[in-house]
Every structure is written in structure tokens, then in C-alpha cells.
């Protein structure tokens, strides 16, 4: 038993490239020993089709049972051959399977082939279908019945063909969601005032389809506890739909910083919810700490919006706020590296940056 475990461990490490948590997790699903030749046959088949070591490592870390549960020639090869018979290149097939290994577990005749026909009929031609597969590999494991119902539902609402194509490319997996859930989510967005032909609709549909009604209501209750009105919550969702998927502890931490430390109002934050999409530890606090140092030392008289500063690329921020002042104010480097604690009180007392315009009052 011990020798078999050691064999599996070394096999996963040396031949599959697994380590750490991925290795420990994979071992829970595997029982093969040195007398079993199937694991090597699986890897050999993948290599024959052009899968690289990083590809294999990802696939096995996601589906370790591939090594022992399936005959690679009977189960995997026909599906890979079929995908290669489409207009997909070998490299594209490898990329699709690497991202969504579950496709190799789907029935070729009862799932993959019928689904590809549906995608072609929905998108208009095989070229569009191939483009969908490349952009959204998870569409290949959609439920065919749900796919058809959901695509037809969008057409019934007069959603333009071009918009359906965009949604398929961006989030094709949504078409496999249970029809009742998909339908309810689309109608909810429509009732909220979303234009079904807009990019806002494309961005807002995934959070609703993926999240539960209970999650939606709990997030609304949480925002209300911080003083947001229903209109302000809706405004934030329209501008930053993913906000309803944030974990509660992350929302609490960000509300604590913006509403209490920077003293933004709920109204101000609902107007600029994009600032909530940044990491507090990696971006927001370090940048505000840099501003704090500059404010305290009167290093500049320029006026900036905090939301604009947070939206800057790292390169631009470092150039304008760190490199430009580090000789005169060495502390900006420490602040940027997170070595100086952000002090909201001194930050609000000294305002050489005309921070009134940023909403920090």
C-alpha cells in the first residue's frame, strides 16, 4: 500500500508535473499502482496530439481521474479526432481541452456533435461556431437542451444576432444554465432597465445567472446596512455588475476604507463603484499612502480625483507619483511598497492636493 502511494506520488510529480495542493488533491482520487499501464497510455495519447507538459499538468490537476478511469483510445481519441475534423487547428483543440478538460468526458454522439450543430445553427455558420469555441471553450459542455431553449428565448426577445454572438464568445457557458434560471435573470435585467443590446447587459447577465436569489438579497441587505438606497445599489450594479459576487468580508473591508476612513458618502461611491474592484492591499491603500506622504510634505499642488488615480496603470502611477518625487521625498517609495501605515486623519488634515474635488470630505 505504501509502495503504491509512493509510486503514484512520484508519477504525478515526475510525469504530470503536479506539486503542492494539486498533488495532494489528485492523490485522493487515484488508486493505480506500478502494474497499471493506463496512466502512461493517457499521457502518451495527449503528447501524440500535441499537448505540452504544461497542458498535461493543468488537465491532470483538474481531472486526475483521467489517468485511471477511462480507456484513452476508446474515450479520448474519438473526441480529439472529431474536434480536429472541424475547422479548429491542432493548437486550438489543445487550448480548448486544456481549458475545459470536461469535454473529454462528454458523450461524442449524444452531446458534443449535437451541441456543435446547435452552435452552428445559432451562430449562422461553422466559422462563427469555431470562433465561439476558441473564445469560450466551456460552451462545449453546455446542456444541449438548455442551450437551445436559452438561445431561442433571446431571439424571442428580439435580442440582435450580433449581441447573441458576443454573449456566446464572452460567456458561452451561460447558455447551458437551466432555462428557468437563465430566463428569470434576463427578464430581471430587462425590468431593471437594461438595454438587451448593450454591453451593460452582457456584463450584468453572468452575475445574475451564476448567483442565487439568496446571494443577491444578502448583498443588497449588506449595502443597505452601510446606508445605500435601493437606487444607489442598482446604480452600482449597473456600473459594476460583479460587485454582487464579492464576498461579504471583502465588501465590509472596502466599505470600512472608503466610507469610514476616506469618508466618501454612499452617493459618491455609487457614482464611482469602479474603485471597489481594486485590491485594497495591492493598489488602493498603497496609492492612498503615497498621496498621504505627498500631501503632508506639500510636494505638489496638482489636483487629482482619487478614482482617477486608482484607475491609472502601475507604470503611470509610479512615474507620476513615485519616481517624480522619490529624490525629494524618499518616503513615497516606502509608502508605495506598503511599509508606511495609511493614516486617514493626517491625510484629511493636509490637502495640498485640493482633495475636496475627490470626494474625500
From TrEMBL:
The keyword Iron does not apply. Gene3D superfamilies: Transcription termination factor 3, mitochondrial. InterPro entries: MTERF (IPR003690), MTERF_sf (IPR038538). Belongs to the mTERF family. It comes from Heracleum sosnowskyi. SMART domains: Mterf (SM00733). Keywords: Transcription, Transcription regulation, Transcription termination, Transit peptide. This is Uncharacterized protein. One of its GO terms (biological process) is DNA-templated transcription termination.
